[in-house]
Please model this.
Amino acid sequence: MKKFYVTTAIDYVNAAPHIGHAYEKIAADVMARFHRAAGNDVFFLTGVDEHGSKVEKSAEAAGKTPIQFCDEMAAKFEHSWKNLNLTYDHFIRTTEERHEKVVQHLFSKLKAQGDIYKSTYIGLYCEGCEDFVREINLENGNCATHKKPPRELAEENYFFKLTKYKPAIKKWLEENPTVVQPDGRRKEVLNQVADEELGDFSVSRSRKSLSWGIPIPDDDDQVIYVWMDALTNYITGVGYLFDDEQFKRYWPADLHLIGKDITKFHSIYWIAFLMAAGIELPKQIFAHGFITVEGQKISKSLGNVIDPNSLVEMYGADAVRYYLMSGTTFEQDGDFSINDFRRKVNADLANSLGNLLNRTLTLIDKNAGGTIPDAKPEHDLREKANTLQVVINNHMHKLEFAKAIDAIFALVDQTNKYMNDEKPWALYKEGKDKEGHEVLYTSVEMLRRAAFHIYPFAPKLASDIWWQLGNDDEIGVPGDNDKHADGYFDMVPVGQKIRNSGPIFKRIEDPDAEKKPEPKKK
Model:
């Protein structure tokens, strides 16, 4: 059994989760479900980042202590991810005692070996980035990312010797072309590593400027700075220091999923920390694009922050998951449009897939006594399905979710065309039951495969298809009688009783659509 350890970035709790946060977490869950269905040993980690000045100020504005505020906000994130049907194995909070001990251990280890030292720094600090910025990179005096001016900061801090590890990081990036993806971002990181201005960086803050953080051992005047604190969650979450067996079982991470704005911190800072600590490096860091809303960046000031819980309540988790993964290439920025959302999920889930299932099962009820007919699948369509299975798996391994979904619906569309061309209802009327049974069996077999493939994206929908086809086991969970991974090419058992219980996905209506006026009576 292969292992697969996937992580997401941990989110600041200074504001409630929105669909931008959900986008990454859904992608991680898609990969976790995909690998579990393939029989792999999966660990999926997500969580929240609870320290730092932004959190401290948000707590103060809310009239709460930092830990009270963090407790409330962490619960909101967990609630949102449960609503989206995420199957994480651990939800880490950076205020956990275990995590604080791991961070302090790492800090002390690196300090003892000379990789952390104390010095005074004067520079421009952006609170949004939680990092120092260079004047040359400002736009009209503002941080290019957060559109606010940084403030000059001068204080005595502890610094990490990044310069010592830059040559090794450069070599790692050059010799392992897939460790940072997409490749354009790997090249950006290589340029950053080559920049002489990127030197040693602060890993602590003075308590005069920040009190809400993990205390530094033997120095009451300093707290550990956010990036050493936050990044360390990836080893804490799988047992570093506290569960050696689990840590050896899952580390290194197979996939760190992050937003493109924090690529530098994961691909340079995190790698340097691990190198210094003598811990094996992750296998891949994937920096995805952002989600905009109706073409605009998600922003409180624009009033376009969308609560994923509201979407789930109105349309269901499967629709939200499916749309966010199918709308655009994962490495690029994608847009959320409510009109496109309704159009896409209606066309694919309700019409193409839902109608195929409904009419297939209705015809089986009417012409085969409600059981899977005794027949074999049509050869050409089955061969196309075999080919598409390889294509879909290749896309999934590359995190090309939209392309994988396109391939899944190529199979669905081909099956719909096959049904329309062969007209099984007409075959039965002509007394050609054998030919009609072959068409229906072929459709059932293609539906089984479509359910298997769409399961990571829309698990409830896939489970409903699976159940209506007469299966009693759970889709996506390999067992002794495996029909999911090794048994992908097996077929639906002849004589199995179907359960035609109605539409698996109801069309989403536009609540704001104008009602057509009723015709006037003559």
